[in-house]
Amino acid sequence: MPAPDDLSLPASREDWHRQFSALQQRALDAAVALRPPPPEPASCCGRGCNGCVWEGFYSAAACWREEALLHLQGM
């Protein structure tokens, strides 16, 4: 897996969870407090709706990742 601060975003749900874990471990090792990553949606109907709850999850995950990287860089 690429380094968590690689510019590319994870492609799958599993990759996001691996990145969440890697960033949380880096924060723990550096004694940096991070807010919890966003929870996965539990209400997807599976019909491919416009504005699917998964779109919101991936958007929130990208924001969490960016914020975590900033905290880890000391900003």
Verbal overview:
There is one protein chain. This protein is an all-alpha fold and 75 residues long. The chain has helices at 13-29, 53-72. Helix 1 packs parallel to helix 2 (53-72). The longest helix has 20 residues, at 53-72. It is elongated.
Principal-axes geometry comes out as elongated
- Class by SSE composition: mainly alpha
**N- to C-terminal separation?**
25 Å
Question: What is the strand content?
Answer: under 5%
Q: Please count the beta strands (DSSP E, at least 2 residues each).
A: 0
Tell me the radius of gyration: 13 Å
The pLDDT mean sits at 88
Contiguous helical run count: 2
What order do the helices and strands follow?
HH
Q: How are the SSEs placed, and which strands pair?
A:
Layout: H1 13-29, H2 53-72
Helix pairs in contact: 1-2
Could you name the key traits of this structure?
75 residues; mainly alpha; 49% helix
Concise description?
With 75 residues, the chain is mainly alpha-helical.
